[in-house]
Amino acid sequence: MKKILVISCGGRPRGNTAQLTDAFIRGAHEVGHQIERVSLLETKVEPCLGCNACRHGKPCVLKDGFGEIVPKIEWADALVFASPLYYWTITARMKAFIERLYGIAAYDPAPPLGRYEKYPDKDCALLMTAADNFFWTFQQAESYYRFALVHYLGFQDKGMLLAGGCGGSSGEAAIEKTDWLEKAYEFGKNIYH
Ligand SMILES: Cc1cc2nc3c(=O)[nH]c(=O)nc-3n(C[C@H](O)[C@H](O)[C@H](O)COP(=O)(O)O)c2cc1C
What we know:
single chain, 193 residues, alpha/beta, Rossmann fold, 30% helix, 20% strand, globular, binds flavin mononucleotide
């Protein structure tokens, strides 16, 4: 059984993304995986300043919630990123969290082409919700996930669940009227099958 850290940043505490995340966790828990959950609404994480203190052996100058997430990242076999779609990509909160992974990279004396440091070996997955459900709705988010997390950081992709058609941000969360919660539950159950 695996240890899974779910990092979520739904705009609304009981919104579409929170519900999708709950369903994924229920499925994963049911088959015996251990789950830790961090909400970036509660644990505040600032974007990277790019000061490069971490590249000179110094601790990160930002003293915020990221420090308490680091041991959870170390503990986890997999990081699951859960975000609503904001202007065709992940939220700023999620992007800020991903930027801070810069601070946990290790020196790599012989990095592969296009990479400059070494990141921990992790599996990863992406859970997203959006109001629209066109063929292009998640294209930028999916592309960012593949470029940054899979190809650059080197995480092993365990899949994506891109839940379009969940209702706009001005109305009630409407994901329960779709079959995405059932799909998220199945994804949680089968992520390691
Ligand atoms: C600032 C903002 C930007 C959004 N941008 C998009 C978008 O580009 N495409 C889209 O389909 N939905 C967009 N939405 C709608 C949300 O992605 C959708 O309602 C999502 O399910 C909200 O998640 P939540 O219920 O977890 O807060 C946006 C909502 C907000 C608040």
